[in-house]
UniProtKB/TrEMBL annotation:
It comes from Paenibacillus brevis. This is Lipoprotein. Its main location: membrane. Residues 25-53 are annotated as: Disordered. Keywords: Lipoprotein, Membrane, Palmitate, Signal.
């Protein structure tokens, strides 16, 4: 009887173990099926695309051009263009560095100056878009009216060809001198045909003209350098170019990148309504938008 009882218990134990084994196998199979389903789902999900790296533009500028560039930088960043502004205190290096590809573009000069620099240095720089005019003005520390200008007075003008000619043309418009008609914008002191006040002309690098005001009776100064020196062209200048000045300040680049998407985005930003408002509100006539 004991043997039968032992045999029955043994058989029951085997059946229980077999049942457990089957459940374990089924659970394992179910787990494997679930995992396979999850893997299939994961594989069909596209990875999130990485955002494109912003295109970097390095642009050289003088003041106030640099301030306008800084104003448009946030809007450009939203369009995928990271703008780096490098400020210069002279008119030479910005063109040299664009030509040598140290800069992508510059913003500081007008067309006559660009033409002269290309001709003098063998550059092939090109205008991208015109942005504003900076009316050229005459300043003095001692005169309150141009009528006070005495015979033999010292007059300082820029020593570069285009801005020197621009200064002489402005003096001619005021009736202070007469120039050879053939000279045009490239006029120099040699082209003065009449000088009734016997004015003594001193040619000085444009950037240091504001510092010469203590040494001369009158100085013809580019607006960017006047602003830098704390002069307000609309209130401090004895006389100034009118708004029809042909000396539009340009965004300039090279033939190889002029039509690039990043340069064109910058050109569009610089001629936006937001920039028009910024220029008018900030400079109040010292700079005049041309777009």
């Amino acid at each position: 009887m004991k043997k039968w009882t032992f045999s029955i218990l043994t058989l029951a134990l085997v059946l229980v173990l077999a049942a457990c084994g089957n459940n374990s196998t089924n659970n394992s199979t179910a787990g494997n099926n679930t995992s396979a389903g999850e893997n299939t789902s994961t594989n069909t999900t596209e990875p999130a695309p990485e955002s494109a790296e912003p295109v970097k533009l390095v642009v050289g500028a003088t003041v106030p051009h640099a301030d306008i560039l800084k104003f448009v930088a946030p809007a450009l960043k939203e369009e995928g263009v990271e703008l780096e502004v490098r400020e210069f205190s002279d008119y030479v290096q910005p063109n040299v560095q664009v030509y040598e590809k140290q800069l992508d573009a510059n913003y500081f000069q007008h067309q006559p100056y660009l033409d002269d620099q290309n001709a003098q240095n063998g550059f092939d720089l090109v205008p991208v878009v015109g942005v504003h005019v900076e009316p050229f003005g005459a300043y003095s520390k001692t005169l309150t009216s141009i009528d006070e200008l005495k015979d033999g007075a010292k007059v300082a003008i820029p020593n570069d060809a285009t801005n020197g000619g621009r200064a002489l043309l402005l003096l001619e418009k005021q009736g202070l001198i007469k120039l050879d008609e053939a000279a045009g914008i490239a006029a120099t002191k040699k082209d003065i045909t009449e000088n009734p006040k016997n004015l003594a002309f001193i040619e000085v690098e444009a950037a240091i003209l504001p510092r010469q005001l203590e040494e001369v009776d009158l100085a013809l100064i580019n607006t960017n350098y006047a602003l830098e020196a704390g002069l307000n062209p609309t209130t401090d200048a004895l006389f100034i170019e009118d708004k029809d000045s042909p000396y539009t300040n340009l965004l300039v680049s090279r033939p190889d990148n002029k039509d690039s998407e990043a340069i064109q985005k910058l050109a569009k930003a610089l001629t936006s309504e937001e920039v028009r408002t910024f220029i008018n509100d900030t400079y109040k006539g010292a700079l005049v938008p041309v777009f």
